[in-house]
Design a protein that fits this description.
CATH topology of the largest domain in chain B: D-Maltodextrin-Binding Protein, domain 2
Number of strands of chain A: 0
Helix content of chain A: 55-70%
Mean pLDDT of chain A: 82
Largest interface: A-B, 81 and 84 residues
Structural class of chain B: alpha/beta
CATH class of the largest domain in chain B: Alpha Beta
Shape of chain A: globular
Shape of chain B: globular
Radius of gyration of chain A: 25 Å
Radius of gyration of chain B: 24 Å
Order of helices and strands of chain A: HHHHHHHHHHHHHHHHHHHHHHHHHHH
Structural class of chain A: mainly alpha
Strand content of chain B: 15-25%
Oligomer: heterodimer
CATH topology of one domain in chain A: MetI-like fold
Chain lengths: 596, 380
């Protein structure tokens, strides 16, 4: 066989072409930042030069030494690492527990109000994670922090204990609830679509329900569970807002808060080293994931055959279960929204009497709002509309790019499964998610500041925001794509191949329609995430392309709670509207994940 | 199989080679020669003409109020002004990257956190100082060097004044059991100026003042377990249950709320006293505490090396330091370094505050802050 022939046969398979192209593009977009960061862990930065008495750029191992092998390492690294592991694993357990149970209830039982509850379920993810943290803080804060008593204390007269109000417990819980929709979307997607033959066969053999769940249902959802675990774990590891809100009063440090401290203090090198370790952790979980999935040959759940499974009858428990689930979802999904709305219309904080209610922060003119430095009401504010439009444009663009690339990546990775190239692309598409947003965007700022060969200078353009958002959120889309493709039996596409149908037509007529909802969720997740992303964009934004979250940040900094709560409400409503619109047009939605 | 791998590796290498060079290059070539801001002095008229010729101006500021000032300036001189609001952390990162790549970005940068600015922006030549000619003889030297100060902000020990008078006269009292868990402060790792303050009190002169204050209060010498009295106070202050907060606004609300059993105390910006009444908070600042009642820090006005409108930038700084341009900021907690502009809301002038508060020295902070950060990490 000649080289030429082998190359030809390699490129005859569409998934190889896709993998090849992705390697080229993603290497530049993700490996360069990674290498830059690695270099940053072993060089002297301007902030450190004075203290280390070395010129900027000198190679040094002092950062690593300080982080890993110094008496100070315990407080700089090991303790925060332990805390991060505790809260992240806790968050995974909570997300999988809630999300998985809910997914099972929706897809496998006759619970009531399914479609309503299903839409409510994704709200916690739509809202920025710190909003739930803030809500927790406001409800359970005790006399340790002073001020007006928390709502819980005000109502019951009981002081919440410290461990309940601050620290690891609420951090894990809030983070877990925030990411529970991941579990619901992914696990629910598989359950909805899986080949019911297996369960049915078991039923015919009179297997008890519990045994069906442990021996059939759970093994089949394992890839989704692992994907969820991977995403939740890495998200929780890199989450910054929740630990700062709930950890600070008891000085509970995790890796991200430590990272922020060092990178924004005078020891950025230590920060980069910590970030590298976080990336390594994430990648090793990804590798474990690949290994486990690789061991099992088949996770196909969608085959050429189909059937319908009988739902579990909850019988007497039906109404109570439905009500418990509804109350729970209401309190984590709607209560924060109601609180945003309320906080945006009261004048003095903490006073909810009718006389204290005003719409001036929404529709007041500049002259009305002397308290907030004459900022016009939100609905009269031209800056708001400009940023709103930019945000929507940006999120749409990122979602289209990330969703499409993620779908192609998912297709190619699964079809090329087991090959080095496929694993490589899988890694490339994943680890940007693990990089600290600020560091990632700072590197992009440098990478695209001037024209380099065929790559144009993108500084100050809208394109650089789209690029950063796309790469950063590609993991969501690629995970969706991979999950969807894992389920899809090869036989379906093979049937097309035998019939002599071209690749393009196989995609548009077979693969995409069958797994439509799953792929669409690959578009919706990046959209949602972009709408509320701040730290990724703040360095790259110029006044002309300011986004809504920069405005939110600005109001937050000022302490103008009414405005920031109002914007929060707007962001959530837009995402919900968008989801609703996609749902109506395509029949799929973020919460249905698969098979809407 | 083998070929695939070779092809893949080959392409990656091909791709990476320039990329790595480029990533490195972008960093080093960074120190683009700072455009000589001070060539030859123009008269005000010449400056206005030159500025108008440039026509546009981009301002980075930590304050939202600069948008309004920008509009007024634009209307007055016919120069289009765009204002971007950035927090110190993002500001320093953004300005250094943009200056390193010599991008057409900011023209005026208002920035705080001297400890970081000194090494990351000033040492590198990314920003330069500019003092309007007519103010060079009137503004105090320490507000001109190493960078021109535009605004001075005070952070003072503020207490709940609902039923109480000023409860302390000496900062060592805050390390006593009486105050355990009743003092708050913004996380010094969250906002650099707070860390700079802690760094300042480890400087010999302030450490000595602390040691003296200790002796004055207790009639005996302080026994050191750390480098000096500054570190010792930080240690005792933090270990006395100091509660760290995320924002000064929240801290003000927490310590100032009425109807609390305990009297609270916190170190935060005087700014928050302005809205205390609207928010129904009982707050009052401490005066004449031994050896300091808090600290004050500068927000600098500077011109980045990558500015494309240097003259308009100078004109804007002129304006920002004038009565007209500073009017929006002349309020409790903010003071102009320009002695001609008296604070209209605070009966205490910045000159008087200067005697009661620790002032940030960026060079010392650049020198010693990393040690203080490490010290804090270990004791927290």
């Amino acid at each position: 066989m000649t080289v030429q022939y082998r190359l030809k046969s390699f490129f005859r398979k569409p998934h190889n072409i896709i993998l090849f192209v992705l390697v080229l593009i993603l290497s530049y977009l993700t490996l360069v930042p990674l290498l830059t960061m690695i270099i940053d862990t072993v060089t002297v930065h301007t902030a450190e030069a004075r203290r280390l008495k070395l010129p900027v750029g000198t190679v040094t191992l002092s950062h690593w030494a300080k982080v890993l092998f110094d008496p100070a390492s315990v407080s700089i690294f090991y303790k925060p690492l332990l805390n991060s592991l505790i809260t992240s694993l806790g968050a995974c357990a909570i997300a999988l527990g809630f999300g998985g149970t809910f997914a099972w209830l929706v897809t496998r039982t006759n619970m009531k109000y399914k479609s309503l509850l299903s839409s409510l379920c994704i709200f916690p993810y739509i809202m920025p994670s710190w909003t739930l943290a803030l809500a927790w803080y406001n409800i359970f804060k005790n006399s340790v922090v002073g001020g007006t008593p928390g709502i819980f204390t005000a109502l019951t007269g009981i002081q919440a204990p410290n461990w309940f109000a601050y620290g690891p417990f609420p951090i894990a819980l809030v983070t877990g609830l925030h990411y529970a929709p991941f579990a619901y979307i992914m696990i629910g997607g598989i359950l909805r679509n899986m080949d019911a033959n297996l369960e049915e066969a078991a039923m015919m053999l009179n297997t008890p329900r519990s045994r069906i769940i442990t021996k059939i249902t759970i093994p089949i959802v394992i890839p989704a569970v692992l994907s969820t675990f991977l995403l939740v774990f890495s998200s929780a590891m890199s989450s910054f807002a929740v630990p700062t809100f709930l950890g600070l009063p008891v000085r509970y440090q995790v890796l991200t808060t430590q990272l922020y401290r060092t990178m924004n203090g005078l020891n950025p090198g230590q920060g980069y080293s910590i970030a590298m370790i976080m990336i390594l952790l994430g990648v090793s979980i990804l590798a474990m994931n690949q290994k486990i999935i690789g061991l099992r040959k088949n996770y196909t759940t969608v085959t050429g055959k189909s059937s319908n499974i009988a739902l579990v009858n909850l019988k007497k428990a039906r109404t109570p279960v439905s009500i418990i689930v509804a109350v729970f979802l209401f309190s984590v999904s709607l209560l924060p929204l109601i609180s945003f709305a309320l906080e945006s219309i009261i004048l003095r904080p903490g006073d909810y009497s009718p006389s204290n209610i005003t719409l001036q922060f929404w529709i007041g003119s500049a002259a009305d709002n002397t308290m907030a430095n004459s900022e016009p009401g939100l609905l009269l504010n031209p800056t708001l509309y400009r940023s709103l439009w930019n945000s929507i444009k940006l999120s749409l663009a990122c979602s289209l790019c990330a969703g499409t690339v993620g779908f192609l990546a998912g297709y190619a990775i699964v079809r090329g499964r087991g090959k080095k190239l496929s694993d490589f692309v899988n890694n490339l598409a994943f680890f940007p998610y693990l990089m600290p947003s600020m560091a990632f965007s700072a590197i992009y700022l440098s990478m695209f500041s001037i024209q380099r060969g065929p790559i144009p200078a993108l500084y100050g353009t809208f394109a650089i925001l789209v690029l950063a958002g796309t790469v950063k959120y590609l993991p969501f889309a690629s995970r969706s794509g991979i999950n969807a493709m894992f389920q899809l039996s090869k036989e379906i596409e093979e049937a097309g191949v035998i019939m002599g149908i071209g690749w393009w037509k196989r995609m548009t007529r077979l693969v995409i329609p069958i797994q439509k909802s799953s792929f669409i969720s690959g578009y919706l997740l990046p959209f949602t995430s972009c709408m509320r992303e701040l730290s990724l964009f703040i360095l790259l934004v110029t006044p002309a392309n300011r986004v809504l979250t920069t405005l939110l940040f600005y109001y937050n900094e000022k302490g103008w709670n009414q405005y920031s709560n109002g914007i929060n409400l707007l962001i959530v409503l837009i995402v919900i509207l968008f989801n609703f619109f996609v749902n109506k047009v395509s029949g799929a939605s973020i919460d249905k994940g698969i098979g809407g | 199989m083998k070929i695939k791998r070779i092809v893949a590796i080959l392409f990656i290498c091909l791709l990476m080679a320039p990329a790595v060079l480029v990533a490195q290059g972008g960093k080093e070539s960074g120190a683009a020669p700072a455009q000589a801001v001070a060539e030859k002095e123009m008269t005000k008229e010449e400056l206005i003409a030159a500025a108008q010729k440039e026509g546009t101006l981009t301002v980075y500021s930590p304050s939202s109020r600069h948008s309004k000032v920008g509009d007024e300036f634009g209307a007055k001189y016919g120069i289009k002004v765009q204002v971007t609001q950035l927090k110190d952390v993002e500001m320093i990162e953004k300005v250094s990257k943009e200056a390193a790549a010599n991008l057409d970005a900011a023209d005026v940068v208002f920035v705080q956190d001297g400890g970081r600015i000194y090494t990351e922006l000033l040492d590198t030549g990314y920003i330069t100082s500019y003092t309007p000619m007519d103010l060079r003889s009137t503004i105090e030297q320490k507000y001109q060097n190493p960078l021109q100060v535009w605004d001075l902000c005070t952070k003072v020990f503020i207490y709940n004044s609902e039923r109480w008078q000023q409860p302390i006269t000496n900062v060592w009292e805050l390390t006593e059991p009486k105050w355990k868990g009743l003092v708050q402060m913004k996380d010094p790792f969250g906002e650099g100026v707070n860390m700079n303050f802690l760094t300042m009190i480890t400087k010999d002169e302030h450490a000595k003042a602390l040691a003296d204050a200790y002796k004055k209060l207790y009639g005996k010498d302080l026994v050191l377990t750390t480098k000096n009295a500054g570190y010792e106070w930080i240690k005792m202050f933090f270990q006395n249950g100091l509660l760290l907060g995320k924002s000064d606004t929240t801290i003000a609300e927490q310590i100032g709320a009425k109807g609390q059993a305990n009297q609270w105390m916190a170190l935060f910006t005087m700014n928050k006293l302005r809205t205390a009444k609207d928010k129904n908070l009982a707050l009052a600042p401490s005066y004449n505490v031994e050896p300091f009642s808090g600290f004050y820090y500068p927000i600098y006005a500077s011109i980045p090396s990558n500015s494309r409108s240097v003259n308009a930038a100078k004109l804007f700084i002129d304006y920002a330091l004038s009565e007209e341009g500073y009017a929006a900021f002349n309020q409790l907690g903010d003071y102009s370094p320009n002695p001609a502009l008296k604070n209209t809301e605070d009966p205490v002038s910045i000159q008087e505050w200067d005697k009661m508060l620790i002032y940030e020295d960026p060079e010392w902070c650049a020198e010693a802050r990393a040690d203080v950060e490490e010290f804090l990490s270990a004791i927290m």
